[in-house]
Design brief:
Layout: E1 11-19, E2 27-31, E3 40-42, E4 52-56, E5 60-61, E6 70-74, E7 80-83, E8 94-98, E9 104-113
Parallel strand pairs: 1-9
Antiparallel strand pairs: 1-4, 1-5, 2-6, 3-4, 6-7, 8-9
């Protein structure tokens, strides 16, 4: 006898934090996937150490091997690629935050320091 169990994946918003030299630039996160792209907005929450934060406009499914491919670009330098592939979110850094409308949401936090 064989059984199949299907689990629903948890969807959370992804929130990238940038520090160091990156935080001084005009950043843009670009989705490289061919299907419906994920877009990120600059977060208006205060970030320690003069950092910047970007939050996804929609929740993203958490998978053991995420399929997302996000790239960091410098908007003020003709879209120069700063990081070819940003790290994916993990389940170990999940916290509460607010979206741009002020609604409380769960976010997976990703920290990038350069």
């Amino acid at each position: 006898m064989e059984y199949q169990i299907q689990f629903n994946t948890r969807e959370v918003y992804w929130k990238y934090y940038f520090f160091g030299e990156l935080a001084q630039m005009e950043l843009d996160i670009h989705d490289l996937s061919p299907q419906a792209s994920v877009t990120f907005d600059s977060s208006d929450e205060a970030v320690a150490k003069n950092g910047k934060a970007f939050i996804s406009q929609q929740p993203i499914a958490m998978n053991s091997a995420p399929k997302q491919r996000f790239q960091l670009q410098d908007k003020s330098n003709s879209g120069k690629i700063l990081i070819k592939r940003l790290p994916n979110a993990g389940v170990n850094l999940i916290s509460k935050s607010k979206d741009l409308r002020g609604q409380q949401i769960l976010v997976a936090e990703i920290y990038v320091n350069q």
